[in-house]
Amino acid sequence: MLAGVRVAVLGPLCLTDTADREIEVGGPRLRMLLVRLALEANRIVPVEALIDGLWGAQPPADATNALQSLVSRLRKTGLAKRIESFPAGYSLAATEVDAEQFERLAAEGSRLLKRNEAANAAEVLRTALALWRGPALVDVTEAPFAAAAVARLAELRLTALEDRIEADILRGHEADVIVELYALTRDHPLRERLTALLIRALRTAGRQADALAAYETARQNLAAELGVDPSPELQQAHLALLRATPAEIPNNGTRLPAQLTSFVGRQHEMTELEALLGRDRLVTLVGPGGAGKTRLATEAASRAANRVWFVHLAGLREAVDVPAALASALGLGDSRVSEKRQVWHPQTDVTTRLLEALADRSELVVLDNCEHLVSAVAHLAETLLAACPRLRILATSREPLTINGETLFPLGPLDLPGENASAEQAAGSAAVRLFLDRARSVRPGFTVDDGNVGSVVAVCRQLDGLPLALELAAARLRSMTVGQVAERLDDRFRLLTGGSRTSLPRHQTLGAVVEWSWGLLAPAERTLASRMSVFANPSTLEAIVAACAAGDLAADDVLYVLASLVEKSFVEAGEGADGVPRYRMLETVKAFAAARLVDAERTRTRFIAWVMGMVEEAEPMLRGHDQVRWLRFLDAERDNVIEAVRLAVDRDDADASFRILAAWTWYWLLRQGVFGEALTEQVLPLARMQLMEHRAPDGPRLLYRMLTVMGGVEQPDPAQIATVLELCHSEQAKAMPLAAMIETVALAMTHEFDGADVAFRRSLRHPDKWTRAVVAFGGAMAAENLGDLARAKRWQEASIRRFRTIGDRWGLAMALNALAEIRSTGGDIAGAIELHEEALRVEVELGPSMDPAMTRSRLAEQHYRMGDLDEAYRVLVRMAEVSQNQGQRAVTVAIVIRLCAVLRARGDLAQARARLDTTRNELVDWPDSMNDPLRCWLGVVEARQYTAEGKLAEAWRAAADAVAATDRNAGYLRDAQSVADVAEAMATIAAAAGDLVFAARLLGASAAIAGALDVGSPDNLAVLGKFGPAEQEVLAEARKMTQDEATRLIKEGVPVPPPGTP
């Protein structure tokens, strides 16, 4: 069946397509036809019925043709595939109509009500009634068929409203419907069910006099208007009212607190909590202060089918006050309170009163803020639940009651936006939605946009998504911008004050919220909590013991104290992405605890020592069979490592800071890759580390230099590379597996290719297996860059064998991708796809990095080369979107450049041009070391794009830009393949201009530089297809050029026309 469109008739007519876009339907008769078909959607409406419905007693002379004309016009609105013709009439197929949906939901709600499922009935009926946006069929009231349909739908609507009100009364929400019922009985004075419901609601609320008055008003109206007596239903309601005794009328005890703000961001939790309340008799909402436990409990209780009693415990100080608070909420005292009509006296034991009053009642009791009296609440709950089989209890607390039968419902922070989320993405997170809702209360119209999304995200993330903290931050927008609030969150306890004056004192400031929980901790718990504040991310028990066990907190006691902190919602426990149990404090809690850390220096010393030992243990494991497990472990420890380095630098500890960084280097490169995050001051204090570098050991210094010089964002100068080479020759560095690779690459960067070859061959005899594998891979890449493709292929195959043996998935994936490119160049596209697919499987196993996205884009390029343009387009569009959403700028640019080539091949030159222009602008402010390789590639694709557009002058200019980029890049590291790519693009231009001889020379130059002509390229094959014997001879001769001769031909062969040349 076709995906349906939607027609809404319960209010102004609205037709929307499958993408929820509104479709305009012009002309009154056309709207009449659409509505008439919609009222019987998916059924055949006879031609006669349609004619009668549209024209009534005055049809046109040729009514059938007039109807056909209207149907034809209606089909042109986008309904062509949905209006079906039959011999007997027409049908609007695969269509959703709000009127039909309303009738279905209303009937379901009625069935639920008859089964006494009041809560479910109320929810379904509310959904049904929410479909009404105004009077039914308001746009077609003049249609002959409209009056009967409107009357029918109005009656159904009123009946559904009555059912919903009855369900609310059954749920104990009679006070909420009384005002509504008064209005309805005024509008419908002769509708007796409404009056009966009003009497019932007033009686249940204890307003007997008002209930009697409502009956009398209805009786008089019926007599005056119709001359009849009230119906049996209404008379029964009156009789029940007269027979009621005070004991049978429920108390007006403490009901749910009315809410002044909207409920935002907890819909999923609400669904889960409702399910628990329907199944279990004791549910405890546990979570840190400010998480919104009271609000969620209130909302859940408001939807419960049972009568609800809400008991505020926050203001109590003594355990003996807990039963009395519940008794007060129930209204127990000297009055009659149960169906046994027993009179209670003040001296009677309060708990006994509660047991007698609740023994046979199906009630829900909400005990709010139990943590400071948790033992007393636990005893009372256990006593009540044991004696009152129909009673249910919902408690809110910062720690569990810990009694048999308790079901815990942990409530954590709201879902957070991603750190680099766009405005649209941020607005989808629960934390941002709550912040925006509360912000609009003090600054109407406030929204998240491209200008403030960074600040909004920062506020929500730094405040951990805690509802109370977000509400306090939003309140600050009365006098500050959101940027100013974000900038001041380092002083959050001073900033976030001024909550509602009617809130509990501990909810009026952020500091008071945490202070309340801190006051409930034992001394050992405070000690551990304050020491845990040194950790920057969730940490293992081993780490916490290492950093926090000292003095009066023994190592053997840490686990038990930690468990207590978890129970009291001061610390969160969970399983990390590495599968290891981890513990963390929310940022707000951590900031509070850090301010109370009395032995800060000793704790930081232990923390730095633990991190250093951890990364030095992990470092060799990143090069073997356990690589994936240790990568995931270090993923989880990333922020702890960064924090330890910063602390060590703050203390001027060169040994610790450089040792940690050295051991972490390979992890950083594995995770960031070529296109990843550069190691900058935003990550580590590199400038201050440079000042203490002379005091660091040579081995760690070498790896520091590799990260900051060879792995940085700026092109290194010769002096920096010379320092790297000097460090490579130190005795300590020689023993490091990475040193051999570093030396070879550094020599190549200075164009010391002979020296690089010597270092390469020496490294192949290195005692470490991984070093020999990675050197083989590096040698293959160097050979390819120098245009020795045969040698590159041999060494890639060797490195693949070696990486498989030692279990290094990273090296294996890199080598597989590189060999795939070589196969593709030789025209073996199927073989290239096979290798890329294996590399992708390995990369996915490794975990988060930039590499899978790039490999998928390489796979897409092979599909393009094979001629499957649709598959290439699908994959590249998807990967461009994913990488952009993840903030991977360089990856996105690389993927989009590939996508532009596919778009050109598909004939979509306009979209390709738009994307190329955007990409060129994107590269303007990038550093040269990243800009030049991408600009070269962009120039190649642009040159072919202009050629396809017939703009050969512009194509030569793009080729000139690419040549200039390769020239600049050659000063950093020679890349034969890039130069060869430029030559091939120039050949495409020359062939389009009719100069096939020059095109042949250029393809020959490409082969001379790269070591082989890329015969897997559709563009090259297109040019080769134009050659005759003469051009083939020129091509063969050009292949014999030296690399320097070929490069000179390329540079001199770009005819850049003067500005303004078309």
UniProtKB/TrEMBL annotation:
Q: Which CDD domains match?
A: BTAD
Where would I find the OmpR/PhoB-type domain in this sequence? 1-94
This entry's Gene Ontology molecular function terms read: ATP hydrolysis activity; DNA binding
Start-end of DNA-binding region = 1-94
Kindly state which keywords UniProt assigns to this record, in alphabetical order: DNA-binding
**Coiled-coil ranges per the record?**
none
Matches recorded under SUPFAM superfamilies: C-terminal effector domain of the bipartite response regulators, P-loop containing nucleoside triphosphate hydrolases, TPR-like
Fetch the InterPro entries from UniProt. AAA_22, BTAD, HTH_77, OmpR/PhoB-type_DNA-bd, P-loop_NTPase, Sig_transdc_resp-reg_C-effctor, TPR-like_helical_dom_sf, WH-like_DNA-bd_sf
- A Gene Ontology BP annotation from the UniProt entry: regulation of DNA-templated transcription
Q: Which family does it belong to?
A: Belongs to the AfsR/DnrI/RedD regulatory family.
Designated name of the protein = OmpR/PhoB-type domain-containing protein
